[in-house]
């Protein structure tokens, strides 16, 4: 359950309607479901300026973190409500006091758990990044080896006294797969 | 940056975290600390608890009903806290 709250008057992005805030985040981070690609802070700031919204990179950065935090907390609140509903139905929540206590606990544990998952995801992304770099390095090494082999074979073909110029040319074409 | 500046920065970031919580629940100290990480802050629990006491005294945050115990204390931002963020363009 969300509670209407007063937003910061001077924080331009925080004051925009929820729909506009979501549109800004879609533009910045991309949204594959809507077929939108991501943009840099610079591009997003230029796009906002075109739309008549003047802000600066630091505000956009702060807003991004705040937006995600808000979304996550609202989602956690919804999950908490569901858990409490189950507890009421199954009878393991008996009193209003117990309900109030459990809602508080669920909500906060979800926030912590979510953050752990975020850290885990970031770690996975970093590991994937490392693997990709290792693969790229391997590919470069293979390319270098291939280039060296081709050069050696070409040198051997060019310096071979047994081959005619036509045969040398044919051999070089063969080495380079032309 | 002086210690006073650092404390003010921490107070501001705590208020920003609490301002993102548009739910009816309060945030406990550990989630607050976790949410402070993206801002580059990693304060100790006792330090944050001290700041929460200070911000409560100033009326910028309020403690939600203590339903369980001391270890499960939780806070929400007040209207005065949001006004503070307004005034400081945060």
Question: Topology, pairings included?
Answer:
The complex is a heterodimer of chains A (178) and B (90).
Chain A: H1 12-15, H2 18-29, H3 41-50, H4 57-90, H5 96-159, H6 165-176
Helix pairs in contact in A: 4-5, 5-6
Chain B: H1 3-19, E1 27-28, H2 29-36, H3 45-57, E2 61-63, E3 74-77, H4 79-87
Antiparallel strand pairs in B: 1-3, 2-3
Output the structural class of chain B.
mainly alpha
How many distinct helices of chain B? Answer: 4
Overall pLDDT of chain A, averaged? 80
Mean pLDDT of chain B: 88
Largest interface: A-B, 32 and 31 residues
Structure, described:
- The complex is a heterodimer of chains A (178) and B (90).
- By secondary structure, chain A is mainly alpha-helical.
- Chain A has a domain at 1-70.
- Chain A has helices at 12-15, 18-29, 41-50, 57-90, 96-159, 165-176.
- In chain A, α4 (57-90) crosses α5 and α5 (96-159) packs antiparallel against α6 (165-176).
- Chain A is elongated and about 100 Å long.
- Chain A starts with 11 loop residues before the first helix and ends with a helix.
- With 90 residues, chain B is mainly alpha-helical.
- Chain B has one domain (3-85): Arc Repressor Mutant, subunit A.
- Chains A and B meet through α4 and α5 of A and α1, β1, α2 and α4 of B.
